[in-house]
Fold these 2 entries.
Entry 1:
Amino acid sequence: MPFELPNLPYAYDALEPAISSRTLELHHDKHHRTYVETLNKLIAGKPLEKESLERVILESARDKSELEIFNNAAQHWNHSFFWHCLKPGGGGKPSGEIARLIDRDFGGYDGFAKSFKEAATKQFGTGWAWLVLHQGKLDIRKTGDADLPLIDGQQALLTLDVWEHAYYLDYQNRRPDFIQAFLDMLLNWDFANQNLANPDQWGDPHRHAAE
Ligand code: MN3
């Protein structure tokens, strides 16, 4: 099979109490696994089977008839990326290069947190909130369903899954509380700094656009 479910970079209970072991196990072992297995079935025997995940996403994004492939490929990418955006004992204010850029582009951490919370709260229904780098500047985005910044030529630095399966067992309808827990207890600023230092690691959108 061309694509595989990556292991979580921490134990199921490592993010408690912000995310319960039960939520993380279902989210990774059921939801993420289903995206990977469905994607592999959909591309079996097709030319896309031999492509990188980023190419599968970009190719299927251009063709409405490939929406099911796009949705499952993008959800595989989004979740693989998302697991690294969380860390035990994370959250709080950033340090390093990302801190410098947040001061420059949002006027400080509070400006970032306000914009991020607003995007994550207002994303209607299923989707994702993102911190992206676009033309050298940080920005906050929200996307619906499986959509991701890669298809718009933007580099993802961080994301938060705001589909209900990410928080409903722990927070029910209180999505804002889940977002606040992400900001205060989980957010992995080290990962954002790694993405700034190494844009190719998660598929530099400019490199892919040029192929
Ligand atoms: Mn999810």
Entry 2:
Amino acid sequence: MSLLDIVQHPNTVLRQVCGPVTSFDDGLRKLAADMLDTMYDAPGRGLAAPQVGVPLRLFVMDVAWKTGAPEPMVMVNPDVLEASAETVLIEEGCLSIPGIPCPVVRPSTIRLRWHDLDGKVTEATLEGALARCAQHELDHLDGILCIDRIEGAA
Ligand code: ZN
């Protein structure tokens, strides 16, 4: 296992639109494993590749481990297929912007399609903390930070 350095705002890699993952190889597996280790060590519930300086469309998350058994997820080349009209205001945090709480309004439920580490396509409807965390990490892949979406900000 290796811990990676977490890139801090305002590093410009956090503002890039990331490119798609094209090879599902051992390098990708190692990156995902190291990202999970780094996320657990931080400690956090989600980490996107640009946050470790890699501008690829990939993130890891685990919204369960802080209160129960770990449920690590790796999402490669994720796409939102549908988002609920219903929204919810939740305060988010970001490992790249420590100590800054971000109250953000987002859809409460999304339908997401992604590739796993073998390149297999999966689809699921995400709700609650999963939906919230995934949307925060998805933003990272497009160079968007939660501070950009703070409720009431100009
Ligand atoms: Zn973040």
